[in-house]
């Protein structure tokens, strides 16, 4: 019979030094972690192969300057990191890392956007678009980076949304939609659709737009962006569905909506958005939202993980797995759960072999396993992790 619910520790041999606020991407065969902070920021990282349980260090030759609060995208052949905060200030530099050759190539400084952190980045299939973020003040500038030509093109300022950070961005397949966040004059309920082909912005409608907020979540359904929760004047349990074709908002129902929260997670299942956890107060509740029926169904409390925030969540194709985080009592957590939206049932992640408790870690889904790594534990910064297989065959 198959052995389910199993952890396997990531090797410590050759593992990068402990860190938090780093980035992690999945290449299709390896997890690449890079950057992040300890006492100072780092420009080191590693490639982890779950098949061989082996680490290979990312080259230091030509590596970008140390940083955290940067962004990273996977192009299909390279990881591009850009921006963030370094040991001497905010950065507008970055690099392309090729895991096959273990080589870095710097992103051009010609036409690069000004340095920033808490910005967003999306991969279009041919370009990385970075936008917004903060320095001393918030920004409404950005750029399109083409890794083939190593060239930047500025995102237009004509019709660009107001400056902001802690906003959300989704890629629709043809446009980037940014919305919400905190600007230089307060919290925002505005946004814009950016078309990289025409280098043009179109404002998201204010008619029926959700209340202003930041630290909310946003998912792309294939036809609509759904934003929900977050922090405005207080925590919110409202949201909206935005249709970019009609430039129209429809409010998410309040009937059966989960309690107000921020710093929660949201995943798209293919037919529903599942939100869970977050605070404040810190929660272990959530809900499934069906945009077709505009209806909420509560996630079961039977077997639900303990309340938490700053945890990770991945979608496996059939389940949402949440793990780790902070309990709010000054204690990190090494528990989690698998949530099946079809059966509305939780199954606890095993404690046997589970990694040490942590938050500010990363998690990737490989197609068969969740890999968690790094973060801050109850005793300090961690360079440990583990592979969690919800269905492990011996």
Task: Provide an overview of this structure.
The chain has 394 residues and is mainly beta. The protein has no helices and 38 strands. The protein has strands at 3-9, 23-26, 31-34, 45-49, 54-57, 71-74, 79-82, 85-86, 89-90, 94-98, 103-106, 120-123, 128-131, 142-146, 151-154, 168-171, 176-179, 182-183, 186-187, 191-195, 200-203, 217-220, 225-228, 239-243, 248-251, 265-268, 273-276, 286-290, 295-298, 312-315, 320-323, 336-340, 345-348, 362-365, 370-373, 376-377, 380-381, 385-392. The strands form eleven sheets. A four-stranded antiparallel sheet has the order 1-38-35-34, with no helix packed on it. Strands 2-3-4-5 form a four-stranded antiparallel sheet, with no helix packed on it. The chain is globular and about 55 Å long. The termini are close together. The model has no long low-confidence stretch (mean pLDDT 96).
List the helices and strands and how they pair.
Layout lengths: L2 E7 L13 E4 L4 E4 L10 E5 L4 E4 L13 E4 L4 E4 L2 E2 L2 E2 L3 E5 L4 E4 L13 E4 L4 E4 L10 E5 L4 E4 L13 E4 L4 E4 L2 E2 L2 E2 L3 E5 L4 E4 L13 E4 L4 E4 L10 E5 L4 E4 L13 E4 L4 E4 L9 E5 L4 E4 L13 E4 L4 E4 L12 E5 L4 E4 L13 E4 L4 E4 L2 E2 L2 E2 L3 E8 L2
Antiparallel strand pairs: 1-38, 2-3, 3-4, 4-5, 6-7, 7-10, 8-9, 10-11, 12-13, 13-14, 14-15, 16-17, 17-20, 18-19, 20-21, 22-23, 23-24, 24-25, 26-27, 27-28, 28-29, 30-31, 31-32, 32-33, 34-35, 35-38, 36-37
């Amino acid at each position: 019979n198959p052995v389910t619910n199993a952890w396997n520790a990531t090797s410590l041999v050759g593992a990068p030094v402990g860190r938090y606020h780093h980035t992690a991407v999945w290449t299709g065969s390896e997890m690449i972690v890079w950057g992040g902070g300890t006492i100072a920021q780092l420009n080191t990282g590693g490639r982890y192969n779950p098949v061989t349980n082996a680490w290979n260090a990312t080259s230091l030759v030509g590596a970008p300057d140390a940083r955290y609060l940067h962004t990273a995208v996977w192009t299909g052949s390279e990881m591009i990191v850009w921006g963030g905060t370094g040991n001497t200030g905010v950065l507008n530099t970055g690099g392309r890392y090729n895991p096959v050759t273990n080589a870095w190539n710097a992103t051009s400084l010609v036409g690069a956007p000004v340095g920033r952190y808490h910005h967003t980045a999306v991969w279009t299939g041919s370009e990385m678009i970075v936008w917004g973020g903060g320095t001393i003040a918030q920004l409404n500038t950005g750029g399109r980076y083409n890794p083939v030509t190593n060239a930047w093109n500025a995102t237009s300022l004509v019709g660009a949304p107001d400056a902001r950070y802690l906003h959300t961005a989704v890629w629709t397949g043809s446009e980037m939609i940014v919305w919400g966040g905190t600007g230089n004059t307060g919290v925002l309920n505005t946004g814009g659709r950016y078309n990289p082909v025409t280098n043009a912005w179109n404002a998201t409608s204010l008619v029926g737009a959700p209340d202003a907020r930041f630290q909310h979540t946003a998912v792309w359904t294939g036809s609509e962006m759904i934003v929900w929760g977050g922090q405005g004047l207080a925590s919110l349990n409202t949201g909206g569905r935005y249709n970019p074709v009609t430039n129209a908002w429809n409010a998410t129902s309040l009937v059966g909506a989960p309690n107000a929260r921020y710093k929660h997670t949201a995943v798209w299942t293919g037919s529903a958005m599942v939100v869970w956890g977050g605070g404040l107060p810190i929660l272990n509740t959530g809900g499934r939202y069906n945009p077709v029926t505009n209806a909420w169904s509560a996630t079961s409390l039977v077997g639900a993980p303990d309340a938490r925030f700053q945890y990770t969540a991945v979608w496996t194709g059939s389940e949402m797995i949440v793990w780790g985080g902070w309990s709010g009592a000054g204690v990190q957590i090494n528990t989690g759960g698998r949530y099946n939206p079809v059966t509305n049932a939780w199954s606890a992640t095993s404690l046997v072999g589970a990694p040490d408790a942590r938050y500010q870690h990363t998690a990737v889904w490989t197609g068969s396993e969740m890999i968690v790594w790094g973060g801050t534990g109850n005793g300090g910064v961690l360079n440990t992790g583990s592979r969690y297989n919800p269905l492990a065959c011996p």
